[in-house]
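Hi U.,

Before I forget, here's the chain from the pilot set. I'm dumping it here mostly so it's searchable later in email.
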Amino acid sequence: MADARFAPLQGHKYINLETFRKNGQGVRTPVWFGEEPPQGPPEKLYVYSTADSGKAKRIRNNGHVRVAPCDMRGKLLGEWIEARAEIVEGQDAHMAWSC
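Structure:
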């Protein structure tokens, strides 16, 4: 059975991605996202960012994140979901572009 925790994000274009600084303080960033599989409840989410961005640096340091559906300005449209983020490269990153 598929993990349905991201089901509340289905049909949304943006998520508010909360990453955490070394001191534990959360930093919220509204971002566009892709989902896998493209139809049905998403099981994986993909966000594009440059390697030197603050969110990428924070994810490299601490993969614990929270996500919530939001509008393009970051206004929350649903509840927070605990998640784990990782930086993908190579073939995985290429696949994320197709989402």
